[in-house]
Prior knowledge:
The structure is a single chain. The chain is 37% helix and 19% strand. It folds into two domains: 2-63, no CATH class; 95-339, 4-Layer Sandwich (Purple Acid Phosphatase, chain A, domain 2), CATH 3.60.21.10. Helix 7 (171-185) packs parallel to helix 9 (210-218). By secondary structure, the protein is an alpha/beta fold. The strands form two sheets. A six-stranded mixed sheet has the order 1-6-7-8-10-9, covered by helices on one side.
Amino acid sequence: MAKQRWLEIFTNDPRQEGEAIRAYSRRIAPKYSTTPANIANKYNENVTRKGLSRDLVQYNTEDIKTDKVEMGEFDWRDAIKPLKEFQNIFKAHKGSQDFASWEIKTKKPICVLVLGDTHMGSWATDYDKLIAITDEIINTPNLYVILVGDLLQMSIKLRGVLEVSDNALPPYWQIRFLESWLMSVKHKVICSTWDNHSVMREENAVGYSTYAEIFKRHTIYHSGIGHVDIKVGKEVYKVAVAHFFRGRTMLNPVHGQMRYMRFEANDREICAAGDSHVAGLIKYKEGGTTRIALNSGSLQNSGYGKRLFSLKHQDHFPCFSLDPNRHEITPYWSVSEWLKK
């Protein structure tokens, strides 16, 4: 009530143009039986401190017009429908998948190569070995491949001059190189995965990955951990793939894969990854299920690796055979070992 009274006083007796607050207070004090100091204090408190313009009290409110829109009520449920529509649109066009199936009609066993960490475009990559592996994939009957990432070098994090200098090809030409290479082997590719050298670095820089888009167009592509059911003849084999799995240790290059099958995916029989440049494979029994864990080696023998890991790079790429007539998985250290069986 007191606030309203003072606002009425100031509205009925506004300050004159250019009139100081002190003079204004003295002029209207006799009308309202109050002191000039009290009027000045109330003027500042009720008008200035409340965010009201001092000039407003010079005019009748009837002279003021505004088209200010009132703040409406917001109900979060109203936003759900358009959000779901966008989710469906993006899901229909994203190109990657968490679950997939791949089938081949055959009466003979097939071999699946786990290939990653080729680091095409790096000065330190063994390109003669890359040619040999590529020709092996193309020309070996019943041989197929799972690509587990880091196929390109893509030194684009800009952490230092030396790192960027490791690009023997600029990033644009690495992408062109990759797509050309993929076209020669894509009919043999079962699936492919994300990685840290290309996908994560591109996403961090611009929010999407050209590398990933290439694989989305031409292969089954997993942007995270992927589960793919491979049907060979009448048998279905359950496989998990990713660029790497949490839990890797120095003493066991496939520990992350083993951990994943134990704690996250009990239904998976085979788990494959790369990233560490340490080739590895194991066949073991757990919970009544025969499991295979594999890790890709690398074609890169960089100065970085020689400083922090080993003078010798591991250009070994484990593989496994799948029988079409009986449920049987057999790991091999290399394709040549499988061919000699």
